[in-house]
Design goal:
The complex is a heterodimer. Helices cover 27% and strands 27% of the residues of chain A. By secondary structure, chain A is of the alpha+beta class. Chain A folds into six domains: 82 residues, 2-Layer Sandwich (Phenylalanyl-tRNA Synthetase, Chain B, domain 1), CATH 3.30.56.10; 125 residues, OB fold (Dihydrolipoamide Acetyltransferase, E2P), CATH 2.40.50; 208 residues, Phenylalanyl-trna Synthetase, Chain B, domain 3 (Phenylalanyl-tRNA Synthetase, Chain B, domain 3); 69 residues, Phenylalanyl-tRNA Synthetase, Chain B, domain 1 (2-Layer Sandwich), CATH 3.30.56.10; 208 residues, Bira Bifunctional Protein, Domain 2 (BirA Bifunctional Protein, domain 2, 2-Layer Sandwich), CATH 3.30.930; 88 residues, Ferrodoxin-fold anticodon-binding domain (Alpha-Beta Plaits), CATH 3.30.70. In chain A, a hairpin with a 5-residue loop joins strand 28 and strand 29. In chain A, helix 10 packs across helix 11. The model of chain A has no long low-confidence stretch (mean pLDDT 95). By secondary structure, chain B is an alpha+beta fold. Helices cover 39% and strands 19% of the residues of chain B. In chain B, helix 1 packs parallel to helix 4, helix 2 runs antiparallel to helix 4 and helix 5 crosses helix 10. The longest helix of chain B has 37 residues. At the A-B interface, helix 10, helix 13, helix 15, helix 16 and strand 30 of A face helix 5, strand 1, strand 2, strand 3 and strand 5 of B.
Chain lengths: 845, 355
Amino acid sequence: MKVPVSWLKDYVDIPLTVEDLARLLTSLGLEVEAVHYVGLPRPADATRLDFKVSGLGWEPDKIVVAEVREVLPHPNADRLVLARVFDGEQEHQVVTGAPNLFAYKGQGPLTPPLKVAYAREGATLLDPYNPGQTLRLKRRKIRGIPSYSMVCSEKELGISDEHEGIIVLDPDAPTGTPLADYMGDAVLDIAITPNMARALGIIGVAREVAAALNLPLRLPDTAVVMEGPPIAGRAAVRITDPEANPRFAVGLIEDVTLGPSPYEIQRRLKLAGMRPINNIVDATNYVMLEWGEPLHAFDYDILVQRADGQPPTIITRRAQPGERLTTLDGETRDLPPYAVLVTDTAGPLSIAGVMGGAESEVRATTRRVLLEAAVWDPITIRRVSKALKLTTEAAYRYQRGVHPALVMPALQRALDLMRRWAGGVVAQGVVDVYPRPARDTVNRIHPRDLSRLLGLDLPAATIADLLRRLDFRVRPLDDGRLEVTTPPHRLDIGEGVVGLADLAEEVARLYGYDRIPATRLADELPPYIGLDRPQREAAIKDALVNLGLQEVVTYRLTAPEREARATVSGQPRPDDAYVRLVNPIAHDRRVLRQSLLPNLLEVAERNARFVRRQALFEMGPVFLPRAEGLLPDEPQRLALLLTGPREEPFWAGAAADDMDFFDLKGVLETLARVLHLPEPLRFEPGEHPSLHPGKTARVWLGAAEWGFVGELHPEVKARYDFGPAAVLVAELDACALRDALPDRYALQPVPQFPPVIEDLAFVVDEAVPAAEVEAAIRAGGGAYVRSVVLFDVYRGPSLPAGKKSLAYRLAYQAPDRTLSDKDAARIRKKIVKRVARAVGGTLRG
Amino acid sequence: MLAELERLYQQALSELDAVTDAQALQAWRVRHLGRKAPLMQAFGRMREVPAEERPRVGRRINELRDALQQAYEAKAEALRQAELARALQEERLDVTLPGRPRPYGRLHPTTRTIREIVRIFQSMGFQVFTSREVETDEYNFQLLNIPPHHPARDMQDTFYVATPGVQADETPPVVLRTHTSPGQIHAMRRYAAQDPDNPPPIRVVLPGMVFRYEQITTRSEIQFTQVEGLAVGRHITFSDLKGTLTEWARRMFGPQVRTRFRPSYFPFTEPSVEMDVECFLCGGQGCPVCKYTGWLEVLGAGMVHPVVLRNGGYDPERYSGFAFGMGPERITMLRHGIQDIRHFWRNDARFLEQF
């Protein structure tokens, strides 16, 4: 909300600079995000201010109130005039093109003169053509006439973007006075949180300031002179749904003359972000900004006309099916059935709490005004405002809650302002239908309760004082408690434990958050309930990082096409096979991922343009719809990707080979080892929609399938912008891995006796998997076989066709003695026999 | 004979002087200290020496031989040193050539920052609790004191998940969580289940990914992480909140860093606060990162709202608690001067490699 400081000062005398006032408001929970200076001195140094700064401080000696005494034609230009301006000291001739002076051209001396904002030679003004920049008035000639000063528009002074005409001040503006003294201002732009609805009126903000500074709040006089014939019998009100419309009141003013509001009022409305319309509408807006209660003005004669000359009856009710209304912005709108309408016997007049209708709005010819002040159900207003995409000042306030007690002061205040600005006579009395009187909450709190929440011991008297400053009624009870009644402008204070928390906030806020001590937690420590998943996941990530892989984190949101791109078929699955968004922000981020692999490929593809070697992993959830229940499964997955040379390029030696299947397999095997998985991983040939059919392994973790590892299928690879190097990927079940991590593991004794090392090569059929040969070696040698390392695979002319030779370096060891040559020979014999029987292998001579 | 031997000795020494390599040294050794060397043969010629002279001559011969042997060893060592010096000279590297690059793995910057935040809270007795990312409206909003149509829903633009059977004009019951706060309810209910009549105290931190319906720009993302925290017990106060978070800030940003607490609003806390830390880049003097305010907004917090406590299974008459939430990406950006939040999920190697 935009709050002009001058307006705020109508209700409380503020002995602070603008900057300190802004700081105070922020410390109260009314965060001042920006200050726009409109005449008051702008701080020279903008550092260490908690808000953005804009606008202009008006130089007191250069920018003053002046009077235009006569407007003369410019001798050389039709679109310019010469103004005779008296600035309190002397008369100046000013060249201007302001269209609103043209009417006075050649009229002779003006009585009374026009009061204007006058900038003397050398004055600094905002540059109307370069937002945020300033310029200095310099002496020059305009169409042959010397010019050194100017009469200002609002834009040059930072009041508004109005640049066509010059400002014409109210007639009582004192000529010669510095303009900053007359109407210098600053506008505080306050972010109002939903709990601060009471500060959506300037009085509400003033009340907070008064409470904080312990100063009196000066409310405007809402007494109104009612001299016209009584309203009774001339307008009636019927509420059909008190839930939706707890209160509705109308007043009547007759013989008004529509016209512009006083300049001072227009200026305030503009600074507060509203457009002045006419004195009647301006009065409703002015009072809404002042009290926070929105008002609406109807042309009474049109209502009478709609009622066929009878006194109108206002009926508030829900919309009927198919009802439409043309609102005062000219749009014809279909009304949802839950919308509440202000109607008369002829049909809808306005969308309650949101926007008035075009037909019954006040216009230049309006003579009689029926003024509405009402309160509406916040949820209804919010739903309607959302459904119609219609955000108005009224709807904004109503959906945050307006206290029904504000209806009367606002209604009377606005009638009084109309009477003063537009003339006319106010009818005696008002019609006030109030079927649901608000009940202000009452809390009984003990200082002990507050200290339990705040950790701050305040005496009851201090608490009472702080709350009273905010207009709470506080009555001490015999048992030491305070009975605290919420003031009739607030809807945000609950009852019971909620009320206690709400009041604790009020006390803490006003006492000052910074004055509350800071203490270390002294409460009992919680029990351990076995939350070890995050630790286990961290252990896996750490192991992968130690293996040289870079962690990445990618978007959870993707598109079926993006996932299909990573498969040979390329066929996207229907959106419904995914967890799908109702309101995606982009078409290619409309479902939740079901695999990490496509994202990892996209990351590698982007990076492939400038790095050759990539080693990446991501660990995170995928989202799998479930047939039952509302929520999907979110299993954690782990995906890995390797591509490019095994080592970074170096100036010595040959370039490294590209990584292949066995690099990634090696990562997985090492991972399993360093994480102490109880069983080694098993790899068996497998197939996967993204992978090379001959270079894919299914990976088993114990008895459970863990995932797959392989080389990207050439068809898939061709869809991405990769270089020639193979792309190796794996996607694994991270939950299974996490759960397989042992809580503890036992160490093998360090051998006391030296091992016997020997190399054996077996010739086997090409089709025999190496894993089976190794298994046979281990089975044959039994416990003596301490390690089996395959160090060569040979195929060539010295072997029969269809055969390969696998050469192993074996270590035999016994825990209790040094093995003899004879022992070794016996073990070897058993191994050779077992390999022959299991896989048909023969020892290579 | 002795005179001849003395002369030979002198000659051997001068020859040794001329020796410059190992081969010549070897030849010299054969010539002067070998079996056939005159000095070595001199013992065989002792007959020529008168008997009474023999002990003196013999001693002298021994002296000469030992002297030659020593001279030889000294020479050999000198030659070895010279050879070593030459070799070392020849093996000299250009130490300014680049080293051999080693592959090095790194955690994602978000993971690093989350770990740093979490580790500090762990040292204060907080445990890590994680929960799901697709949530019901109930957990994401209603149980957190944000009923349908509450204006606070405007503060968090929400991605809604399609649910079969839900009409277009109804509010869908499933959302991508907009904050990690639903984890508060999950955590409270899990702890309360331990002993529903007397629920145990809680101290948890809840890191995780959250989602907002926002345009992706340099300042806003559709997903980002949060670290939420929750402490519930019988004697937990607003001053504990201040003390705990101030202590965290000092450990995170430096022991001198000052903090500031301002009233704020979150539907699930009351009272609510925002904590600013003094800008650690400029020491509070004002710089572009803190927008010349000297302060950085770092986290939101508050005392857990009684309704939320009750929804979690904790009686607000007997228990109180505080909660807080912060954004690891924002903290990472502030610390490293990162201008564009989109770097985090783009995973550009040139970005990630700098951590």
